[in-house]
Design brief:
Helix content is 65%, strand content 13%. It has 10 helices and 7 strands. The strands form 2 sheets. Strands 2-4-5-7-6 form a 5-stranded mixed beta sheet, covered by helices on one side. Strands 1-3 form a two-stranded antiparallel sheet. β6 and β7 form a beta hairpin. α1 packs antiparallel against α5 and α5 runs antiparallel to α10. About 3% of the residues have low confidence. Pfam families: His_kinase (PF06580). InterPro entries: Bact_2-comp_sensor_kinase, HATPase_C_sf, Sig_transdc_His_kin_internal.
């Protein structure tokens, strides 16, 4: 393909300009150039082919210059300067190669010859410029779009990593605090707790980059609940239900945990806690409800976490990044119960 554009197309370009000029000139003068000497015609066509090579070579130099100077800037100023460059190259090449040829053949240089020699090749030059640069600009636009998408994805990935980094210290503090107090009472039990904690941490470290089976998440939540029960009061009334239909569905990891952690953190009053994870059609529904201390005010949605932590606000942002338009999340206080519900669409 390079061979065609470098060696064949310039010759065709020159011949196309030549035959157009000859046809228009013959229409005015009544001449029939194909009845002339073929030696003369071939000489003119050779000059026209040479003109095509010189013009397209000059155009390529102009394009290379502006690509290097302006790079990704496709402003109107650049286009105007490119068009001016194409016009000047066309003007010089046509008058160097075509005017002497016309002046030395037939009845000499007439005014209409001068017009044809300059206007017709310029018309083809502008068509060539439009086709060539529209292709170059469209390719550059596509490349810029890909670069923009890559930058956007990198930015989102960086934000997700930052959100995870926010979450880990929150989890670590609570778990280590549990183990710390347990060691004063039962060292053997504390060792088992450390083992559970290690399993939880291992899951966090190695399974966060891609979607995981919901069964892994359920196992993780079960371990987390067991760890929290160790440090909870005996008054805790815990109800946990994980739907047996949930097996191989894929979800992003650690989206349910902030709700469970939040429930254990703020539970009080009658110490009732309910965790329900179910499959409903094409959705996974996670429902968390916990009683609040009697002194807890009637706060609007999300205010508890915005005043005292980053868990739910962090979760909301992660959902926007990972499940845009495919999640529903609500959280708030109702009748001394803090209720949070998250629904994820898994079948689009």
């Amino acid at each position: 393909m390079k061979f065609f554009w470098r060696y064949i197309f310039p010759a065709l370009y020159g011949l196309m300009a030549y035959f157009t000029i000859r046809l228009l000139t013959d229409s005015v003068t009544g001449m029939q150039f194909w009845k002339r000497s073929w030696a003369l015609n071939c000489t003119e066509m050779a000059f026209s082919i040479l003109m095509g090579f010189m013009f397209l070579w000059g155009d390529r130099r102009v394009f290379h210059y502006f690509d290097k100077k302006w790079h990704d800037n496709f402003s109107s100023k650049r286009i105007r300067q490119e068009l001016l460059g194409v016009f000047l190259i066309n003007l010089v090449v046509q008058n160097v190669f075509m005017i002497p040829m016309v002046a030395l053949t037939d009845n000499g240089l007439q005014w209409f010859d001068l017009v044809d020699v300059n206007i017709i090749p310029l018309f083809y030059a502008l068509i060539y410029y439009g086709v060539r640069r529209s292709y170059d600009y469209s390719m550059a636009y596509a490349d810029n779009r890909l670069q923009l998408e890559k930058i956007t994805n990198d930015k989102l990935e960086t934000e997700l990593k930052f959100l995870r980094a926010q979450y880990h210290p929150h989890f670590l503090f609570n778990a280590l605090n549990t183990i710390y107090f347990q060691m004063d009472e039962d060292v053997a039990a504390a060792k088992k707790t450390v083992e559970k904690f290690a399993d939880l941490l291992r899951y966090q470290l190695y399974d966060q980059q891609e979607k995981v089976c919901i069964s892994h998440e359920i196992q993780y939540l079960q371990h987390f609940v067991e760890l929290q029960k160790i440090r909870s009061t005996r008054k805790l009334q815990l109800q946990v239900y994980f739907d047996e239909q949930l097996r191989d569905e894929k979800v992003y990891p650690l989206l349910f945990l902030p709700l469970v952690e939040n429930a254990f953190k703020y539970i009080g009053g009658e110490y009732q806690l309910q965790l329900l994870l179910r499959k409903q059609g094409g959705e996974i529904s996670f429902y968390v409800e916990n009683s609040l201390p009697a002194a807890a005010p009637d706060l609007p949605d999300m205010d508890i976490e915005r005043k005292n932590g980053i868990g739910l606000e962090n979760l909301q942002r992660r959902l926007e990044l990972l499940y845009p338009g495919r999640h529903r999340f609500s959280a708030g206080v109702r009748q001394q119960q803090f209720i949070a519900e998250l629904k994820l669409t898994i079948n689009e």
